[in-house]
Amino acid sequence: MIGLRRDSHGLGMTSQRARDRLIERLKSEGIRDPRVLDVMRQLPRHVFVDEGLETRAYEDSALPIGMGQTISQPYIVARMTELVLAATPAKVLEVGTGSGYQAAVLAQLGLKVFTVERIDNLLRNARRRFRALKLEHIRSKHDDGRLGWSEEGPFDAILLTAAGEHVPTELTQQLAVGGVLVAPVGPQNQTQRLVRITRTPDGLSEDQFEPVSFVPLLSGVT
Ligand code: SAH
Protein backbone atom coordinates (compact mmCIF):
# COMPACT_ATOMS: atom_id res chain seq x y z
CA MET A 1 0.00 0.00 0.00
CA ILE A 2 1.26 3.41 -0.92
CA GLY A 3 1.34 6.28 1.55
CA LEU A 4 -0.04 9.67 0.71
CA ARG A 5 2.34 12.60 0.62
CA ARG A 6 -0.29 14.88 2.09
CA ASP A 7 1.85 17.83 3.08
CA SER A 8 3.78 18.32 -0.10
CA HIS A 9 0.66 18.74 -2.21
CA GLY A 10 -1.73 20.35 0.19
CA LEU A 11 -4.46 17.95 -0.90
CA GLY A 12 -4.91 16.43 2.54
CA MET A 13 -8.04 14.41 3.13
CA THR A 14 -9.71 15.57 -0.05
CA SER A 15 -7.32 13.50 -2.12
CA GLN A 16 -8.80 10.18 -0.96
CA ARG A 17 -12.34 11.50 -1.45
CA ALA A 18 -11.46 12.68 -4.95
CA ARG A 19 -9.95 9.28 -5.73
CA ASP A 20 -13.04 7.47 -4.41
CA ARG A 21 -15.18 9.64 -6.69
CA LEU A 22 -12.95 8.83 -9.65
CA ILE A 23 -13.33 5.10 -8.94
CA GLU A 24 -17.15 5.45 -8.88
CA ARG A 25 -16.93 7.17 -12.23
CA LEU A 26 -14.71 4.44 -13.71
CA LYS A 27 -17.25 1.85 -12.52
CA SER A 28 -20.09 3.77 -14.16
CA GLU A 29 -18.04 3.85 -17.38
CA GLY A 30 -17.85 0.06 -17.35
CA ILE A 31 -14.58 -0.80 -15.57
CA ARG A 32 -15.33 -3.99 -13.66
CA ASP A 33 -12.08 -5.64 -12.59
CA PRO A 34 -11.88 -5.13 -8.79
CA ARG A 35 -8.08 -5.45 -8.81
CA VAL A 36 -7.77 -2.50 -11.20
CA LEU A 37 -10.27 -0.41 -9.24
CA ASP A 38 -8.52 -1.18 -5.92
CA VAL A 39 -5.07 -0.28 -7.17
CA MET A 40 -6.28 2.95 -8.77
CA ARG A 41 -8.09 3.85 -5.56
CA GLN A 42 -4.81 3.55 -3.65
CA LEU A 43 -2.30 5.01 -6.08
CA PRO A 44 -1.80 8.79 -5.71
CA ARG A 45 -2.15 10.05 -9.30
CA HIS A 46 -1.38 13.59 -8.10
CA VAL A 47 2.25 12.51 -7.61
CA PHE A 48 2.45 11.83 -11.38
CA VAL A 49 1.16 15.17 -12.68
CA ASP A 50 3.04 18.45 -13.00
CA GLU A 51 3.26 20.91 -10.16
CA GLY A 52 0.21 23.14 -10.19
CA LEU A 53 -2.05 20.47 -11.71
CA GLU A 54 -2.40 18.31 -8.57
CA THR A 55 -5.92 19.51 -7.88
CA ARG A 56 -7.00 18.17 -11.29
CA ALA A 57 -5.30 14.79 -10.85
CA TYR A 58 -8.54 12.91 -10.06
CA GLU A 59 -10.52 14.25 -12.98
CA ASP A 60 -11.05 11.62 -15.66
CA SER A 61 -8.90 13.44 -18.18
CA ALA A 62 -5.43 13.37 -19.71
CA LEU A 63 -3.15 16.12 -18.40
CA PRO A 64 0.08 17.65 -19.76
CA ILE A 65 3.37 16.32 -18.34
CA GLY A 66 5.72 18.56 -20.35
CA MET A 67 7.66 17.93 -23.59
CA GLY A 68 4.33 17.92 -25.46
CA GLN A 69 3.26 14.66 -23.77
CA THR A 70 0.36 13.70 -21.51
CA ILE A 71 -0.46 11.35 -18.64
CA SER A 72 -3.26 9.15 -20.04
CA GLN A 73 -6.87 9.57 -18.98
CA PRO A 74 -7.64 7.31 -15.95
CA TYR A 75 -10.44 5.51 -17.86
CA ILE A 76 -7.98 4.55 -20.61
CA VAL A 77 -5.39 3.36 -18.08
CA ALA A 78 -8.06 1.22 -16.39
CA ARG A 79 -9.38 -0.14 -19.69
CA MET A 80 -5.95 -1.08 -21.06
CA THR A 81 -4.99 -2.65 -17.74
CA GLU A 82 -8.18 -4.75 -17.75
CA LEU A 83 -7.43 -5.97 -21.27
CA VAL A 84 -3.87 -6.85 -20.27
CA LEU A 85 -4.91 -8.67 -17.06
CA ALA A 86 -7.20 -10.97 -19.00
CA ALA A 87 -4.04 -12.75 -20.17
CA THR A 88 -2.97 -13.37 -16.50
CA PRO A 89 0.48 -11.91 -17.16
CA ALA A 90 3.52 -12.06 -14.88
CA LYS A 91 5.89 -9.99 -17.00
CA VAL A 92 4.82 -6.92 -18.93
CA LEU A 93 6.49 -4.41 -21.25
CA GLU A 94 5.22 -0.85 -21.53
CA VAL A 95 6.23 1.39 -24.43
CA GLY A 96 5.95 5.06 -23.40
CA THR A 97 6.70 5.50 -19.68
CA GLY A 98 5.62 9.16 -19.72
CA SER A 99 4.73 10.13 -16.16
CA GLY A 100 5.15 6.55 -14.92
CA TYR A 101 1.52 6.25 -13.77
CA GLN A 102 0.54 3.31 -15.99
CA ALA A 103 3.74 1.45 -15.03
CA ALA A 104 2.97 2.11 -11.35
CA VAL A 105 -0.55 0.69 -11.74
CA LEU A 106 0.88 -2.47 -13.31
CA ALA A 107 3.55 -2.79 -10.61
CA GLN A 108 0.98 -2.43 -7.82
CA LEU A 109 -0.93 -5.30 -9.41
CA GLY A 110 2.12 -7.46 -8.67
CA LEU A 111 3.45 -7.62 -12.23
CA LYS A 112 7.10 -7.43 -13.15
CA VAL A 113 7.20 -4.26 -15.25
CA PHE A 114 9.67 -3.23 -17.97
CA THR A 115 9.04 0.24 -19.35
CA VAL A 116 10.76 2.18 -22.14
CA GLU A 117 10.66 5.95 -22.78
CA ARG A 118 12.30 7.91 -25.63
CA ILE A 119 12.40 11.30 -23.80
CA ASP A 120 15.15 11.25 -21.19
CA ASN A 121 13.72 14.15 -19.23
CA LEU A 122 10.38 12.39 -18.71
CA LEU A 123 12.05 9.12 -17.79
CA ARG A 124 14.11 10.84 -15.08
CA ASN A 125 10.97 12.31 -13.53
CA ALA A 126 9.18 8.96 -13.67
CA ARG A 127 12.11 7.20 -11.96
CA ARG A 128 12.09 9.83 -9.22
CA ARG A 129 8.40 9.06 -8.59
CA PHE A 130 9.01 5.29 -8.54
CA ARG A 131 11.69 5.83 -5.89
CA ALA A 132 9.57 8.21 -3.83
CA LEU A 133 6.68 5.73 -3.78
CA LYS A 134 9.06 2.78 -3.19
CA LEU A 135 7.68 1.01 -6.23
CA GLU A 136 9.71 -2.09 -6.82
CA HIS A 137 9.54 -4.48 -9.78
CA ILE A 138 9.81 -1.63 -12.31
CA ARG A 139 12.78 -1.61 -14.65
CA SER A 140 13.05 1.22 -17.10
CA LYS A 141 15.27 2.26 -19.97
CA HIS A 142 15.81 5.24 -22.24
CA ASP A 143 15.37 3.90 -25.76
CA ASP A 144 13.12 3.74 -28.80
CA GLY A 145 10.45 1.41 -27.46
CA ARG A 146 9.33 0.38 -30.96
CA LEU A 147 12.25 -2.04 -30.73
CA GLY A 148 10.93 -3.56 -27.51
CA TRP A 149 13.37 -5.00 -24.96
CA SER A 150 14.47 -8.25 -26.59
CA GLU A 151 16.96 -9.26 -23.86
CA GLU A 152 14.10 -9.40 -21.36
CA GLY A 153 11.43 -10.92 -23.59
CA PRO A 154 9.26 -12.75 -24.27
CA PHE A 155 6.56 -10.82 -22.40
CA ASP A 156 3.14 -12.04 -21.33
CA ALA A 157 1.77 -8.62 -22.15
CA ILE A 158 2.94 -5.54 -24.05
CA LEU A 159 1.21 -2.21 -23.72
CA LEU A 160 1.77 0.78 -26.00
CA THR A 161 0.74 4.15 -24.63
CA ALA A 162 1.48 6.06 -27.84
CA ALA A 163 -0.23 5.54 -31.21
CA GLY A 164 1.42 4.34 -34.41
CA GLU A 165 -0.17 3.58 -37.76
CA HIS A 166 0.95 -0.02 -37.32
CA VAL A 167 2.17 -2.15 -34.46
CA PRO A 168 5.93 -2.75 -34.95
CA THR A 169 6.70 -6.41 -35.71
CA GLU A 170 9.65 -6.29 -33.27
CA LEU A 171 7.03 -5.97 -30.54
CA THR A 172 4.71 -8.80 -31.58
CA GLN A 173 7.83 -10.98 -31.92
CA GLN A 174 8.52 -10.40 -28.21
CA LEU A 175 5.09 -11.70 -27.16
CA ALA A 176 4.93 -15.08 -25.42
CA VAL A 177 2.41 -17.62 -26.72
CA GLY A 178 -0.88 -16.74 -25.05
CA GLY A 179 0.39 -13.19 -24.53
CA VAL A 180 -1.46 -10.02 -25.53
CA LEU A 181 -0.37 -6.67 -26.90
CA VAL A 182 -2.73 -3.75 -26.29
CA ALA A 183 -2.19 -0.56 -28.30
CA PRO A 184 -3.85 2.48 -29.83
CA VAL A 185 -3.49 2.12 -33.60
CA GLY A 186 -4.16 4.69 -36.31
CA PRO A 187 -2.94 7.96 -37.79
CA GLN A 188 -2.61 11.14 -35.74
CA ASN A 189 -5.47 13.62 -36.05
CA GLN A 190 -7.76 10.81 -37.11
CA THR A 191 -9.61 8.23 -35.10
CA GLN A 192 -7.31 5.67 -33.53
CA ARG A 193 -8.62 2.40 -32.18
CA LEU A 194 -7.67 0.39 -29.16
CA VAL A 195 -6.46 -2.94 -30.53
CA ARG A 196 -5.56 -6.20 -28.81
CA ILE A 197 -3.25 -8.64 -30.56
CA THR A 198 -3.03 -12.14 -29.10
CA ARG A 199 -0.25 -14.57 -29.90
CA THR A 200 -1.79 -18.02 -30.31
CA PRO A 201 0.15 -21.21 -31.07
CA ASP A 202 -0.88 -20.66 -34.73
CA GLY A 203 0.00 -16.98 -35.12
CA LEU A 204 -1.54 -13.63 -34.24
CA SER A 205 -5.20 -12.70 -33.84
CA GLU A 206 -6.59 -9.19 -33.49
CA ASP A 207 -9.61 -7.67 -31.72
CA GLN A 208 -10.64 -4.03 -31.99
CA PHE A 209 -12.16 -1.92 -29.23
CA GLU A 210 -13.26 1.68 -28.77
CA PRO A 211 -11.86 4.80 -30.50
CA VAL A 212 -9.13 6.56 -28.53
CA SER A 213 -6.81 9.55 -28.84
CA PHE A 214 -3.12 9.18 -27.99
CA VAL A 215 0.10 11.10 -28.60
CA PRO A 216 2.20 9.71 -31.50
CA LEU A 217 4.61 6.81 -31.33
CA LEU A 218 7.83 8.41 -32.60
CA SER A 219 11.20 7.05 -33.64
CA GLY A 220 14.58 7.73 -32.04
CA VAL A 221 15.41 9.14 -28.63
CA THR A 222 15.78 12.64 -27.23
N1 SAH B 1 2.03 5.66 -19.97
C1 SAH B 1 2.19 7.09 -19.84
C2 SAH B 1 1.57 7.83 -21.00
C3 SAH B 1 2.52 8.85 -21.53
S1 SAH B 1 2.15 9.50 -23.13
C4 SAH B 1 1.65 7.57 -18.50
O1 SAH B 1 1.03 6.78 -17.77
O2 SAH B 1 1.87 8.73 -18.16
C5 SAH B 1 3.11 8.45 -24.18
C6 SAH B 1 4.60 8.45 -24.00
O3 SAH B 1 5.13 7.65 -25.04
C7 SAH B 1 5.28 9.82 -24.12
O4 SAH B 1 6.02 10.06 -22.97
C8 SAH B 1 6.20 9.65 -25.34
O5 SAH B 1 7.44 10.32 -25.22
C9 SAH B 1 6.41 8.15 -25.36
N2 SAH B 1 6.83 7.59 -26.65
C10 SAH B 1 6.41 7.91 -27.91
N3 SAH B 1 7.05 7.16 -28.82
C11 SAH B 1 7.89 6.35 -28.12
C12 SAH B 1 8.84 5.35 -28.50
N4 SAH B 1 9.08 5.02 -29.78
N5 SAH B 1 9.53 4.71 -27.52
C13 SAH B 1 9.34 5.03 -26.22
N6 SAH B 1 8.47 5.96 -25.80
C14 SAH B 1 7.76 6.62 -26.74
Structure description:
- The chain is α/β, with parallel strands linked by helices and about 220 residues long.
- The protein has a domain at about 60-210: Vaccinia Virus protein VP39 (Rossmann fold), CATH 3.40.50.150.
- About 30% of the residues lie in helices and about 25% in strands.
- It has 7 helices and 9 strands.
- The strands form 2 sheets. The protein has a 7-stranded mixed sheet with strand order 5-4-3-6-7-8-9.
- Helix 2 (about 15-30) packs antiparallel against helix 3.
- The longest helix has 15 residues, at about 15-30.
- The chain starts with 5 loop residues before the first helix and ends in a 10-residue tail after the last strand.
- Residues about 1-10 have low confidence and may be disordered.
- Bound molecules: S-adenosyl-L-homocysteine.
- S-adenosyl-L-homocysteine binds near residues 72, 96, 116, 118 and 217.
Task: Set down the secondary structure blueprint.
Elements: H1 6-9, H2 14-28, H3 34-42, E1 63-66, E2 69-71, H4 74-85, E3 91-95, H5 101-108, E4 112-117, H6 120-132, E5 138-142, E6 155-160, H7 169-173, E7 175-185, E8 192-200, E9 203-212
Parallel strand pairs: 3-4, 3-6, 4-5, 6-7
Antiparallel strand pairs: 1-2, 7-8, 8-9
The structure holds S-adenosyl-L-homocysteine (SAH).
